[in-house]
Design a protein that fits this description.
33% strand; 29% helix; 10 strands; Chorismate lyase; Arc Repressor Mutant, subunit A; 2 domains; two-stranded antiparallel ribbon; alpha+beta
């Protein structure tokens, strides 16, 4: 193939105390982030990259494998390696619903209801929601979609007033659970969350259309009302190849 102009001026420096594979990885990543390599672009083969930069194919493969694991490249058997779709950005500076965040990023939000049930709170669920053991709570499990693509698996445990009920039809019609709560007079004001990396099990892999063992980002948190009442405890499994979180901190 003709070597892309974006790669022609790139080089690696053997005098730097930085591994060659990492220099190549960073150079490719810079081109992707700057938009000089765009979604769907075919990158040169391992052999071509190795010849261009005078490095071994093992070095090239390691750079490409890292970018593929991080979701920046995707390899199609028999076709080559392509620049993947841009990751979905979620910002931790403001509390937004999934639907609001997707719309702000230019994606069409969607949802598939997997389970809606009424069960008794036990153990950590009772503690997180500030209710007594054996109190009734709602559980809403959904597969969340962006542009019809499954990107996260969400399970919300809800401490709702007795007069508020959830029905499948409303959850299937309304993408945003928070909008349903707000229509019932429940105003959400703040959340506390943690994020950690986990591996996809068989069920998560099937629903999210990834391989078993693929990296996922687990977000756990509690959402409070404007009266400081814990309303929602959630566990959200996000596809690691499609998601990135940004956090802004000030000192």
């Amino acid at each position: 193939m003709v070597f892309p102009a974006t790669l022609s001026s790139m080089d690696v420096d053997r005098n730097l105390p930085v591994p060659l594979y990492y220099q190549l990885r960073e150079a490719l990543l810079t081109l992707i982030k700057e938009g000089r390599l765009q979604e769907g672009d075919l990158i040169p083969t391992e052999r071509e990259l190795g010849e261009r930069f005078q490095v071994s194919r093992i070095t090239v493969r390691r750079a490409i494998d890292e970018l593929a694991r991080e979701g920046y490249l995707v390899t199609q058997q028999g076709k080559g390696t392509f620049v993947a779709r841009p990751k979905i950005q979620r910002h931790m500076t403001h509390m937004k619903s999934f639907s609001e965040e997707m719309a702000d990023e230019g994606h069409h939000p969607g949802s598939r209801l997997l389970s809606l049930r009424h069960e008794k709170a036990v153990g950590y669920l009772a503690s997180a929601l500030g209710v007594a053991e054996e109190d009734w709570i709602w559980v809403v499990e959904r597969l969340r979609l962006a542009d019809d693509e499954p990107i996260c698996l969400s399970c919300a445990y809800l401490n709702l007033p007795p007069e508020v009920s959830l029905i499948p039809a409303e959850l299937q019609q309304q993408v945003s659970l928070w909008s349903i709560l707000e229509k019932n007079g429940i105003i959400l004001s703040r959340s506390e969350e943690t994020i950690q990396a986990v591996a996809a099990g068989e069920r998560e892999a099937e629903l999210l259309q990834v391989e078993v063992g693929s990296p996922l980002l687990l977000v756990e948190g509690v959402v409070y009302s404007d009266q400081e009442t814990p309303i929602e405890y959630h566990q959200i499994l996000n596809r690691g190849d499609r998601y990135t979180y940004s956090v802004r901190a000030m000192r």
